[in-house]
Amino acid sequence: MDTMDTLVKPQVATDLDTLDKPQMATDLPKLARFLSSLPPLVAAVVWDVLNSQITAKTVALADKVTDEEWAKYEVVRIVGACNPKYFRAEEAQVLVWEMME
After folding, report:
1. Helix locations, the chain, DSSP H
2. Do residues 61 and 54 lie in contact, with contact meaning Cβ atoms separated by under 8 Å?
3. Looking at residue 76, what is its pLDDT?
4. CA–CA gap between residue 61 and residue 28 (Å, rounded)
5. C-alpha to C-alpha distance for 36 and 90, rounded to whole angstroms
6. In 3D, which of 66, 3, 58 has the Cα closest to residue 39?
7. CA-CA distance, 39 to 28, in Å (whole number)?
């Protein structure tokens, strides 16, 4: 047995690993339609969530949405209240996938 075999820890599946994710790479028209249906700031936040690129600028964008958009889009509230350093994009991505259905 190789030494590397003994050092590798087995991966434990989580609920996020078992979710059916949209095939965004093969269904770009659907993704484009979805993003274009959102208000501009919400679309920018959602794009960053999908790309796991949550930064302080993303949080600032989320904070600038209207009160109506803040109330309507849970993903915006999550991003607006997060610390980008510790943010787990997978949890917010689940919300986006549900919005796309």
Report:
1. 3-7, 28-36, 40-50, 56-63, 67-72, 74-80, 89-100
2. no
3. 95
4. 24
5. 22
6. 66
7. 19
CB distance 61 to 41 below 8 Å:
yes
Q: Within a 10 A sphere around the Cβ of 12, how many other Cβ atoms?
A: 6
Angstrom distance (rounded) from CA 35 to CA 15: 26
Q: Could you give the 3-state DSSP secondary structure of residue 20?
A: coil
Cα(60)–Cα(79) distance, rounded to whole angstroms? 9
pLDDT single digits (tens) 64-92: 999 999 999 999 999 999 888 888 888 88
Q: What is the pTM of this model?
A: 0.72
